[in-house]
Amino acid sequence: MPLYMCNSAKGTIDDAAKPKIAADITRIHCDVTGAPPQFVHAFFVEDSPAQPLGDKSAMLFGSIRSGRTDAQKAQIIEEMQASIQTHTGLSRDEIGMITADVPASWVLEGGEIMPEPGEEAEWLAKHGHHAPAE
Amino acid sequence: MIPCNCVVQEGQIPDDTAAALRASISEFTERAFGAPAEFSWLAVPERSGFTASAPSTSSIISLRAPRAVSLSEREPLLRELCGIWTDHTKCSLNEIVGVISDPVAE
Description:
- The complex is a heterodimer of chains A (134) and B (106).
- Chain A is an alpha/beta fold.
- In chain A, 32% of the residues lie in helices and 25% in strands.
- Chain A has three helices and six strands.
- In chain A, the strands form two sheets. Chain A has a four-stranded mixed sheet with strand order 2-1-3-4, covered by helices on one side. In chain A, strands 5-6 form a two-stranded antiparallel ribbon.
- In chain A, a hairpin with a 2-residue loop joins strand 5 and strand 6.
- In chain A, helix 1 (17-33) packs antiparallel against helix 2.
- Chain A is elongated.
- The relative contact order of chain A is 0.21.
- Chain B starts with a strand and ends in a 5-residue tail after the last strand.
- In chain B, helix 1 (15-33) runs antiparallel to helix 2 (71-89).
- Chain B has a four-stranded mixed sheet.
- With 106 residues, chain B is α/β, with parallel strands linked by helices.
- Chain B has helices spanning 15-33, 71-89; strands at 2-9, 37-44, 49-51, 54-55, 59-64, 96-101.
- Chain B has one domain (21-101): 2-Layer Sandwich (Macrophage Migration Inhibitory Factor), CATH 3.30.429.
- Chain B is 36% helix and 31% strand.
- The interface between A and B is medium-sized, with 32 and 32 residues.
- Strand 2 (41-46) of chain A pairs antiparallel with strand 3 of chain B, so a sheet runs across the interface.
């Protein structure tokens, strides 16, 4: 967690663009929230009924830990939409994004309940990782 | 029925393993919440899943409890759920994200 699930119309996002967008998603999430990259998942699917596209060509659904501010969420949305636009050529109007807050205590990752935002360093140390410099 | 959303990497879990996994998870939800699981199973295509910007081997299992669950109850349930996943798939605990959410507030 976070999990960023990008659903798009078939053929909209090619295989060359996916790792670039995933790298941007990871960087943006970490830059905005201070979270370490180990937690960031970015998955791409096509025409998935589980994540409706509505009138968009691409929709990014971000499940993020509760505790992020409205300003952080707005920045995440703005910058991730821009990344998808850059790497696909879609117009901004064709790209949608929403986020959903998930309490950290609802999530087990790496065999442990996820840390609350800002408490990641101790969690990572316990799992043999080192938090990156922020 | 207990809604249970699974996201896996395509080709990572053989069909027979997935079937046995779903059966064990449904037994788990019967024990924990008194109802079988109703699955949404999504396979992320090859070259389409990334964790920390690298190709992902991670799976996500997310189920919605029919009632509010305290942390003292939720944590052992999550451990059991993720344990079922690792037992069947032989993945590591670092490759499974388990979520048990409370019901949506009316």
